[in-house]
Amino acid sequence: MWFLFGAILTGSLLVPTFVKYGFANGLGDTNRTVQFNSGNLWGSFNIVEGILGRFLAFGSFELPRLIGHDTATRLTFLKENPWLIPIVAFLTLVGILQSIAMLVLWFRKNHSQPDWKAVKYFALATVVLLYVSFLFSMKPPLSRSFYVVFPVAMLYSLYCWNEFLKKPAWRKFAALFIACAIVFEVGLAVNNYSRVSLYVERSKIVEAIKTRNYHLVGERRAGTRY
């Protein structure tokens, strides 16, 4: 009841839009994106690119996507930044092992935290919800489409690492890992600043702000009302 009450309160903000443009136009054609898509279900079972793999990656250090969208661009990054190769190799390996560990540790029964069972089933329910949701989406389950569940994946991962970090050896390993991650992020920032950063187009952005002309940096989608 409280959920419905809250939904009515926020949903009422759409009334003026529907009054002016009608129900169909007021939805902004978003209703067209809701359709049964069984292809998403089979594609989602890909352990790496599917929903489960992407969900687990939220709770791990998924490095490859940060340095390129395919193998060629990632190799180019390493050629341009050879000093980062050992760090990239180390972080990539640990990131992969993190995802595998999170999957295996779900079956762990004994845990020092009393709410471990609730957390792991909460994570499972979230993944199941994602699978069901994308059955009714015309778009594939890309990470950016369900990044909103990142806190759930991160919370679950912290419960997984909790038992390991009680031991001094694992804490030292974690410190080394974090130090390498910081070095990598600094190197990535330096690389991106002159190549893919917004500042590469800084003069165009400044001109758009001065002239109040957003057309200089991009066009809105046809039919957009915002």
**How many structural units, i.e. domains?**
3
Radius of gyration: 22 Å
Listing every helix as H and every strand as E from the N terminus to the C terminus, the arrangement reads HHHHHHHHHHH
Mean pLDDT across every amino acid position: 87
Helix percent reads: 55-70%
Shape descriptor reads: globular
Structural class: mainly alpha
Q: Sheet with the most strands?
A: none
Tell me the β content.
Answer: under 5%
Number of helices: 11
The unreliable regions are none
Total beta strand runs: 0
How far apart are the termini? 32 Å
Written account of the structure:
The chain folds into three domains: 1-33, no CATH class; 35-195, no CATH class; 202-226, no CATH class. The chain has eleven helices and no strands. The protein has helices at 2-11, 15-26, 38-44, 51-58, 64-67, 71-80, 85-105, 116-133, 150-162, 168-193, 202-211. The longest helix has 26 residues, at 168-193.
Essential attributes:
mainly alpha, about 0% strand, single chain, about 230 residues, globular, 11 helices, 3 domains
Quick summary:
The chain has 226 residues and is mainly alpha-helical. It has eleven helices and no strands.
What is the secondary structure topology, with strand pairs?
Layout (H helix, E strand, L loop, with lengths): L1 H10 L3 H12 L11 H7 L6 H8 L5 H4 L3 H10 L4 H21 L10 H18 L16 H13 L5 H26 L8 H10 L15
Helix pairs in contact: 4-9, 8-9
